[in-house]
Each structure stands twice: as C-alpha cells, then as structure tokens.
Amino acid sequence: MVTTVRNGIAIKVHGNANHPATHGALCTKVSRYPERTYHPERILQPLRRVGPKGSGQFETVSWDVALQDIASRLKAIASQGPRGPERILPYSYAGTMGQVQGESMAARFFNKLGASQLDYTICASAGGEGLTQTLGGKLGMRVQFFAESKLIVIWGSNSIGSNLHFWRHVQTAKRNGARVICIDPRRTETAEKCHEHIALLPGTDGALALAMMHELIVHDWLDHDYIDRFTTGWEQLRQRALEWSPERAAAICGVSPEQICALARDYGMAGVRGEPAAIRMNYGLQRVHGGGNAVRAIACLPALTGAWRHRAGGVLLSSSGTFSVDKAALQRPDLRAGKTARTINMVTIGDDLLRKSSETFGPAIEAVLVYNSNPVAVAPESSKVVAGFAREDLFTVVLEHFLTDTADYADYVLPATTQLEHWDIHTSYGHTDVLLNRPSIAPLGQARPNTEIFRGLARHMDFTDSCFADDDLTLCQSAFGSNVDFSALQRDGFVPLPVEDAPFAKGGFPTPSGKCEFFSARLEQQGLDGLPGYVPNHEVPRTGTSYPLAFISPPARNFLNSTFVNVKSLRDIEGAPLLEISVQDASERGIASGDVVRVFNPRGSYRCTARVSDRARAGVVHGLGIWWRKLGLDGRNVNELTSQNLTDMGRGPTFYDCVVQVEKSSKP
Ligand SMILES: Nc1nc2c(c(=O)[nH]1)N[C@H]1C(S)=C(S)[C@@H](COP(=O)(O)OP(=O)(O)OC[C@H]3O[C@@H](n4cnc5c(=O)[nH]c(N)nc54)[C@H](O)[C@@H]3O)O[C@H]1N2
Ligand SMILES: Nc1nc2c(c(=O)[nH]1)N[C@H]1C(S)=C(S)[C@@H](COP(=O)(O)OP(=O)(O)OC[C@H]3O[C@@H](n4cnc5c(=O)[nH]c(N)nc54)[C@H](O)[C@@H]3O)O[C@H]1N2
Ligand SMILES: [Mo]
Q1: What is the torsional sign of CA 141, 144, 145, 148?
Q2: Which of 372, 447, 494, 656 could disulfide-link to 92, CB 3.0 to 4.6 Å?
Q3: What span, in angstroms and rounded, lies between the C-alpha atoms of 429 and 522?
C-alpha cells in the first residue's frame, strides 16, 4: 500500500504498482483507509470507564495515569499465589495481522508476566492442521500460476469478495480457456462468474471429496507413478474412497450425483490430458465440525492425478508456511524462565470467562487485555461472551481505534495507531513476499503503537530486561533476521522469498515420511482416524424439526470481519444486517424481501432484514458480515446463534455449523 500525503495528512491510499501480487490495485474497503483513519469517532486519548460495564461511558485520562493504574491492578492480580499471573489473559487476533504490532512486544510482556497463553484458533487452525498432516505444512501452489491453469476449482472461498488479488489470476486463466468451478453453499459473486457452481450443504465437503476420489479410482483417472513414488497409505485410502459412491455423497451434500460425477470427470480428465488442474481452497470450508478432515481429503486430490507435476497444478489453501518468522526473537518465550502457563482457546472465551477456579481449569480469569480484536462481536455464542465481559470483577483493557462492542466493556480503552501511523512487517497466506509497512503520517492525537503501549506497561510493571527497550525498527529487522535483506525491504517495500515454481513435482513433501500422507500415522497415534473421512456437522439441519435451516455467516464484501463496519461509505454499500433466504424457505414462512425477521435457535436470537434471493439455496440461510452488535436491531449480531463447538482438528470454531429457525418478526 502506498499513501499520498499532503501537509502531513494522508489523502489517498493505493497499491504498490511494482508489487506483482496486487499490481497497484486495492479492494474497496482498504481504499477507504484514510476515511477510517480520520474518522471523527477515532479514540485519540486514553479512556477510563465511568458508567456501568457495557455502557460505553468513559472519561479521558492521561497516559501516565492509565498505565500506572493498569500496572498496579495487574500486579495485584498476579501476586495472588503461584498461579496468580495466569489470572491474566491476552486476547488478540486479526486487527493488524502484522508481526510487530501483533505478537512482538505484547508477547514479551505476557511472557515476562507469566500470563495465560492464548490458543490462536479463531480463523484457520482446523484447515491449517489438516493441510499440515497431509502436505507437511501450510504450503502449496504459487498463487500467480493459477493464471496458467486449465481447470480451477474454487472451494469454500468467495474470492471476489475476500481475495480479490487471486481473482485476477482466475480471469487470466478464463480468458485462456480455463474452466472454473465453485463449490460453495452460497451463490456468491464469485460463484455466479464460474462455469459451474456446486451449492452443497455446509459441512459436507469431505463427502464430496471422497466421492470425487471414488470416481477417479473407478475410471482410473489416476497418476499411478506419482502415487507410487510420492504418497503413503494409497491402499487404505483407495478402500475408504470406494465406500463413497456419488449417490451416497449426493444424499449428504444435497446435490445431484450427476453434478459430482461431472466434477470428478473434469478433474480426472484434466490429469489424463496432462492439463494443469488447480484447487483454491479457502478457510470458509473448514469452519464446521469436520473442517480438518475435509481439508485433508481435498489436499489428497492433486497427488491422485499428479496435478502437482505442473506449476499451474495442485492446491493452495495457505502459503504462510513459507515465511520463516523468527518468533523466538520477536516474542522471547525464554522470558517465562521455564515456567509453563495454561492455554485458553480463544474460541471458547465465552465459557472460559464464566468459569470459576477449579483443579482442571486453574484460576478464574480476572483480567483480559484485548488488542487487535473485537471478541464481543466476533467470538461465537455472544450471550456468554457478553456475560463474561460484563463481569464486575473482571478487569478489562482494550487497545483500539474505536469504541467497538468490546471496548464498551473496558475499564480502560487505550488509543492505538493504525497501519498508516506505525511500522510493521507483514507476511501473507496467498503470495510469498515479505512486506514492510512504513508509517506515512504521525500518530493522530495521543495514539500509540501497540508496541509502545506494551513498552510503557512493561516500564510501569518494573520489567527491566533490555528487550523491552527495542524500538519498532529493531523489531522489524528481527522478524526475519538475516533471512531477508532488510535494506532491500526498505528500498522496495517487499522482498520475494525463494520458492520453487512446482514445489511437489518430484515429491519432497515436508511430512515425516517425505510423501503426501493419505494415511497419517501421527493422527492415528493421537487416537484419530488415520485416513481423511467425512465428519458430519455437530448440527445437521433436518426438515420437520424445530431448527430446519443451516445458518452460515460468511464475510460481507465491504467489511473485514468487524473492521470497517463503522465507516459510513462502506456501511452504506452493505446497507443493513441482512439474512439471505431462498424463495422456497421464504414463501413457506410468509417472508418477503425487506421484512424484519427473527433468526433463532436455543442459544439465542437476533433480528435483521430478510432478502429473498437466489444467492441462497433451499435449506441454508446466510447472515452476512460481522456487524457491530450495537448497529444491529436489538443490539445483537450473527454470533448470538453460533456455538462454541470445536472442529475435529486444530480446536477451531464451527461458525458455519449451526442450525436455526427463521420467522417473520411482529415488531418492525
Ligand atoms: N471482504 C472481506 N475479505 C476478507 C475478510 C472479510 O471479512 N471481508 N476476512 C479475511 C479473513 S480473516 C479470512 S480468514 C479470509 C478467508 O476468509 P473465508 O472465510 O475463506 O472467506 P470467503 O472467501 O468469503 O469464504 C467463505 C465462503 O465459504 C462458504 N462456505 C460456508 N460454509 C461452507 C462449507 O461448509 N463448504 C464450502 N465449500 N463453503 C462454505 C461461504 O458461503 C463463503 O462464500 O478472508 C479475508 N478477506
Ligand atoms: N459468525 C462469524 N464469526 C466470525 C467469522 C465468520 O466468518 N463468521 N470469521 C472469523 C475470522 S476468520 C476471524 S479472523 C475473526 C476475526 O476477528 P478479530 O480478530 O476480532 O478481527 P476484527 O473483527 O477485524 O477486529 C479487529 C479489531 O482490531 C482493531 N485494530 C486494527 N488494527 C489495530 C492495531 O494496530 N492496534 C490495535 N490495538 N487494534 C487494531 C480494529 O479496530 C478492530 O476493531 O472473526 C471470526 N468470527
Ligand atoms: Mo480469518
């Protein structure tokens, strides 16, 4: 991103035209970054709570007063016995996604303190684990070579909405005659631009992938040489797949057997013809109970047909494993001095904030420091999350740009800088370039970078280790150490990492066996299925029951999770919180577009506006975007309905594994 600055004020942001990953293009939401930065509601001074928790009533205080008081509260909590420090929990995730403003100085602070550790699971851990078990890491095809593919399967991703820079390569491939297939319950803006859309039921991707394998096997659309040399567990996988006829999978997926056969034929014949076939998975498909297994099954496909032999063939879920970030240098786990602390799963923050001290759980959580995240809006089962943050005996500090739903519950809100105002180092899960984020304007008001806030807290806690004095440029340099030429990074803004064009053309998977592991001995040792399987959703919608509809809540195009929701020009495009519902499900319930509907299940309910739409298939409804609760009707959002159930692997969330009922609301 490049910023045009006039008289110290950022006027406009645009892409770096020299960076091949974007060619200078930005998505709509990021192009509004100046509007967000100079937003009149930006928090520019430290705030201390004066009203009841959740009321969002604050007074301004000086940095010194805020830091001094926070430090003394934390000291008092940490000094309650040997496990006192574990009563303190950091909570952070996607706000900046940078290595420096994410877990560098903050991690050092919590390591030194001995605080509880956070399990960073809320986005990608099930798929990441499934991919790692199969391929050996978060690795795959190079994103730019999708442009040369002859068959592209976009699986669980609304690329136009959430991965625009990838879509450019798809357009190039399409122009060169590629066939493009989208697998997604929702008829997204991406699905409607593909040649084929397979609108399966949420959480059934594992069954679909196994039935594809079945077809590849019975028609012998296989690359036997690749399988023999570069895979393990073929005989077992073969037997498993032969249990999955297209008819069996079709009944589970809610699509026709013919559609499955045609998908398998397209994929298999590409292999037979020696044409590159590429699968772009994204994290949408792994936010269900069987998410890890679904990713495993899909990740096996290119080894069956030998698609990896081509640089434009294979699969890409994430490239993040390419980035050898020196986490030890940034985060300094050695500051824990050998003491271990329990780990809290960020997905179950609702339950965990409400837990009392116990032998199994350890001490109750008494303080939470939130930065780069808005858990009250984004974590599942909001009623519990809200009840947790509303606890009078919980001490909450939130580092933020705005008074989000979470900040409303804070005892202190500390003003943080934005991307335009601080240094950072960024990695990616699509391309493989290291990026430098250089501040283009001075911090607004009294805002400080997260790093500087934690440096200040460390000082007030009397942490004297010299690492707490490192400045942001030093932190930027230590993120990759000598693995990246920092002067080139400063000169160009990005440095490509050395990666092979066709990483697995000759095997070389970074698994224990060095092969693509159809069968995983590691998983079997953990008591799990050694083969990829179909794991049904926790909540399967069935007609005739109280909750007959599957509910998914994928991102809205103009928001980034719950970020940008308060930027008026973007909110105006999205309109209001919406429920997309099919003509059939709407008419059965007497619902018309524009009606206010109530969406509910045993965990709770929220109201929003219905949009009767062919984006929804029968049996599935969509609540788009993560609206701020306080901007929704009744002050609630989609996560009022989602559960804290976890995925089969990786302890991840199951946002898209949720059943509901919908009715027309009597209230306007
Ligand atoms: N505009 C925008 N861009 C974003 C984000 C955002 O909030 N807004 N979020 C960013 C983040 S944090 C992430 S993690 C990434 C990736 O985030 P992803 O979650 O991959 O986002 P999408 O590409 O929208 O993919 C979700 C798609 O999966 C579909 N889906 C839901 N359930 C299933 C299922 O069971 N099977 C299949 N096959 N599909 C299913 C949804 O209908 C949706 O179209 O996007 C990033 N980019
Ligand atoms: N129902 C449902 N829930 C979901 C999802 C879904 O698809 N459906 N998606 C899930 C996914 S994929 C993810 S990744 C999570 C994301 O959830 P979060 O990690 O909470 O991400 P955001 O909602 O974008 O909130 C980030 C906050 O960080 C703040 N921020 C940004 N930059 C900085 C900074 O430099 N310093 C500080 N202190 N703050 C900053 C922003 O103002 C924003 O309020 O949500 C998950 N929740
Ligand atoms: Mo995410």
Answers
A1: positive
A2: 372
A3: 25
Which of 152, 246, 238 shows the shortest CA–CA distance to 200?
246
Asked if residue 246 lies in contact with residue 211, where contact means CB atoms within 8 angstroms, the answer is yes
Strand order in the sheet with 88-92: 58-60, 47-49, 412-415, 395-400, 367-371, 88-92
- 252, 290 Cβ separation under 8 angstroms: no
Helix (H) or strand (E) holding 168: helix 164-175
- Spell out the residues 6+ positions from residue 351 whose beta carbon is closer than 8 angstroms to its own: 381, 384, 644
Query: Which ligand 1 atom is at minimum distance from the Cα of 555?
Result: 7
- 283 Cα nearest atom in ligand 2: 12
The pLDDT assigned to 656 comes to: 98
pLDDT along the chain (668 residues), means of 10: 89 87 83 90 97 95 98 98 97 95 98 98 97 97 97 96 92 97 98 98 98 98 98 98 98 98 98 97 96 98 98 96 95 96 98 97 98 98 98 98 97 97 94 94 98 98 97 96 94 93 97 97 93 98 96 92 89 92 98 97 97 98 94 95 98 98 89
What are 277's two structure tokens? 């076939």
**What is the CA(596)–ligand 1 centre distance, in A?**
25
Of 247, 186, 253, 183, give the one whose Cα is nearest residue 214.
247
157: helix, coil or strand?
A: coil
Q: Are 293 and 648 in contact (CB under 8 A)?
A: yes
84, 253, 285, 378, 619 from 67: Cα distances, Å: 20, 54, 42, 27, 51
What is the Cα–Cα distance from 243 to 232, expressed in whole angstroms? 19
* The two three-digit tokens of residue 299, written as one number: 């990740």
Predicted local distance difference test score (pLDDT) of residue 262: 98
Q: 51 is written with which tokens?
A: 């009203």
Among residues 618, 613, 607, the alpha carbon closest in space to that of 665 is found at 607
Is the alpha carbon torsion for 34, 39, 44, 48 positive or negative?
negative
Query: Does residue 381 come out as left (phi exceeding 0), alpha (psi in the -120 to 50 range) or beta?
Result: left
Task: From residue 39, give the alpha-carbon distance in Å to each of 43, 212, 244, 311, 567.
Answer: 9, 50, 54, 45, 8
SS3 368: strand
Cβ atoms 348, 379 nearer than 8 A: no
Q: Which helix (H) or strand (E) holds 281?
A: strand 277-281
Q: How far is the CA of 157 from the centre of ligand 3 (A)?
A: 12
What's the 554 CA to ligand 1 centre distance in angstroms? 5
Res 387: pLDDT: 98
Pocket residues: Cβ below 6 A from ligand 2: 93-96, 101, 122-123, 371-374, 378, 399-402, 404, 416, 450, 553-555, 560-563, 626, 638-639, 642, 655
The reported pLDDT for the residue numbered 16 is 86
SS3 614: coil
Q: How far is CA 446 from CA 320, 409, 566, 571, in A?
A: 34, 21, 21, 27
SS3 category, 88: strand
